[in-house]
């Protein structure tokens, strides 16, 4: 019951407005990355990557995006910014891994044709 009467929590419009701005910025960042992610998934499918590899890497990317958005929206400290950057790099690493594995598989298939 005391939680309902807690006047120390900040329920101001400013607090909510700031979080809404951060949510919009997080969504914009996701839109900027979606083409890169989609092309990596298409490359993996065209190359014939195993389902487990493709699912693991795409799942890890999607989880990293969810964690990134949570950190971006709910925190505005310097430590949170560093954690957010590390999570973003992890997600981009999954995309690069998809491209590299796809390229290596296609290179091996092309070498076997010769």
From TrEMBL:
It comes from the Eukaryota. It holds the Pfam family MAPEG. This is Uncharacterized protein. Transmembrane segments: none annotated. Its main location: membrane. Keywords: Membrane, Transmembrane, Transmembrane helix. It is found in: Membrane. One of its GO terms (cellular component) is membrane. The keyword Ubl conjugation does not apply. The keyword Signal does not apply. InterPro entries: MAPEG-like_dom_sf, Membr-assoc_MAPEG.
